[in-house]
Amino acid sequence: MKLYYTPNSPYARICRIVADAHGLTNDLELVRVPLRDTTSTLIPLSTMGRVPVLTDGDLVLSEGRHICAYLDEKAGVAPKVATYGDWPAVAREAEALAFLDAVTVWTRELRRSEDERSPFLLQVEEEQVVRMIAHFDNILKAPAGSPALTYENLCIAVAMSSLDFYELAANWRSGYPSLAAWVGAYEAMPIIQDSVPTAAAMNLFTR
Question: 56 with 50: CB under 8 angstroms?
């Protein structure tokens, strides 16, 4: 199997964490690709050219949630993604993914040069993210044991990590102690620490 990724992609990061948790690291070749490059080796595999993309023989998967479900199947373990039929779980997972999407749009806009940023978009995404942080603070409690590496929980944990990396939602930990304790349980895990974003891998966006 090959996973096409960029180091700071939160969606690819979730896939890497799940593969590691399943003991599939040695079965998964990581292929780093550039973003927004029409000559990328990723384009023939996925016309959109977005990461992550997983290939296994002739199979090409280009959606993080589906990749994680496939990794669950390859490892022969209980699904870490919500299964259709368990609609409350599906709803929670969709909410967590929407939060990650909002954080990602916010950080992408900030990676543009200042004169190209949309003040309206920055305001909208900040408002969405702050509302969701307050919501998660109300419903999430620090786990009593080892945190569950579900797709839903990883979307939230990775999103909060992105906020910290880009220094957004300043001082959220002091304002939202329940969420801070919940996130702290994930941050303490070596499997999470191994894939944190780095300044060296940051991609700046122009037009």
Answer: no
